[in-house]
Design a protein that fits this description.
CATH class: Alpha Beta
CATH topology: Nucleoside Triphosphate Pyrophosphohydrolase
Shape: globular
Distance between the termini: 33 Å
Number of strands: 7
Length: 146
């Protein structure tokens, strides 16, 4: 059964906060902070909680950017993980970002740096970074949704 989870996408001065994952799936790869949505927890609250747990960064608000499937199979084709990931654009408030909880490292990277990671990044990380930067620029010009 698919597991609902969030990705916390934070854009600050044109850079995005990524973590290098400590646990499967995607152990050792760079991706956006995130994790499972707890029972009774709203999507945005889950994104803000996971962001703080993994990086120490505090954010507020948030709008859903997109929803992605993260399906992983072993070498024989047997399903090992299936997450439905809700990517949430979060507004940075404070914190520089440090590896904590399920993260090995944390870094603020420009979209081109994320694209250059190739297989060292989670699937769709570069695409999601570009989407977040575009949405962030749009919202900065016209005001963020309430």
């Amino acid at each position: 059964m698919p597991i609902p989870a969030v990705l916390s996408v934070v854009v600050r001065d044109g850079r995005l906060l990524l973590v290098r994952r400590a646990n499967p799936p995607d152990r050792g790869r760079w991706g956006f902070p995130g994790g499972r949505i707890e029972a009774g927890e709203e999507v945005v609250a889950a994104a803000l909680r996971e962001l703080h747990e993994e990086t120490g960064v505090i954010a507020d608000g948030g709008t859903v950017l997109t929803v992605l499937d993260s399906i992983h199979r072993d070498e024989t084709g047997v399903l090992t993980h299936h997450f439905v990931l809700v990517a949430v654009l979060c507004r940075w408030v404070s914190g520089e970002g440090r590896a904590a909880d399920d993260a090995l490292e944390a870094a603020w990277l420009a979209p081109e740096e994320i694209a250059a990671l190739h297989e060292k990044a989670s699937r769709n990380a570069a695409w999601l970074a570009d989407l977040a930067v575009a949405r962030s620029a749009c919202c900065d010009r016209v005001g963020r949704p309430a």
